[in-house]
Amino acid sequence: MKVIVAKNYEELSDIAAKQIVELVSEKPQAILGLATGSTPEGMYKRLVELYNENKVDFSKTKSFNLDEYKGLKGEHPQSYRYFMNTKLFDHINIDKANTYVPNGTAENIEEECLAYDERITAAGGIDLQVLGIGNNGHIGFNEPSDFLYMGTHLTDLTEDTINANSRFFDSKDEVPTQAITMGLGGIMKAKRILLLASGEKKAPIIAKLVEGKISTKIPASILQVHSDVVVIVNEAAASLLKKNSIRNIESISL
Ligand code: F6R
């Protein structure tokens, strides 16, 4: 696991966006795995800027999002489809037909989950998976538990996650209690993983992710066994890391 400490959120967003631009420039038909939440918002904003400066062409790129709330239609302002459209897809030249987000209102959720994984496999697998991390160590909506799931599945959200995500809704009661999420197997199959974290609140979980033991109680800790994970944090999120866990960005060939 490589850890890059950016000076601030802007730099973190810039480094992450440039990773995507570099990949798409080398491989225009790249398959991106995308996340929602507050953390990657700056990266999406930066990607739109770089697109407007003609630095990147997404016309052949496909994307698969990690997760979607159960019961929310794509037009719902808190749905992850809506988030992706408004923060990124509406502003770049990706073909929306090539952007996939699990369908939270599918009649048969089990079929939707199987079809989602099959679609990823048929596309050739994810080249670069972007992840945020929950304060409780979740990635996607793989919540701490005795068991972890390989494939895309329906999951109950923990109280922690419902509380954390209630900031986006008018009241906590409106936060869906279930979501469809890619499983740990799907995430681990990505060729490269970029995990982003910003702010002091994320410092304890970042320390556990990088320096702690691998445990299903910290789902993100399984990333320690992936051969190409880059953790990009700002100084606040890195504040509880031991010095020797951090590698200088100059010394890393990304
Ligand atoms: C979102 C997702 C979640 C978030 C995590 C952190 O698609 O999969 O795992 O990445 O909850 O969210 P923020 O960035 O809002 O702190």
Automatic annotation (TrEMBL):
Belongs to the glucosamine/galactosamine-6-phosphate isomerase family. NagB subfamily. Its EC number is 3.5.99.6. The active site is at residues 67, 136, 138, 143. It catalyses: alpha-D-glucosamine 6-phosphate + H2O = beta-D-fructose 6-phosphate + NH4(+). It comes from Clostridium omnivorum. The keyword Hydrolase applies. The lineage of its organism: Bacteria, Bacillati, Bacillota, Clostridia, Eubacteriales. It is an enzyme of class 3 (hydrolase). Keywords: Carbohydrate metabolism, Hydrolase. CDD domains: GlcN6P_deaminase. Residues 11-227 form the Glucosamine/galactosamine-6-phosphate isomerase domain. The gene is nagB. InterPro entries: Glc/Gal-6P_isomerase, Glucosamine6P_isomerase, Glucosamine6P_isomerase_CS, NagB/RpiA_transferase-like. HAMAP family: GlcN6P_deamin. Gene3D superfamilies: 3.40.50.1360. Catalyzes the reversible isomerization-deamination of glucosamine 6-phosphate (GlcN6P) to form fructose 6-phosphate (Fru6P) and ammonium ion. This is Glucosamine-6-phosphate deaminase. The keyword Hydrolase applies. Pathway: Amino-sugar metabolism; N-acetylneuraminate degradation; D-fructose 6-phosphate from N-acetylneuraminate: step 5/5. It comes from the Bacteria.
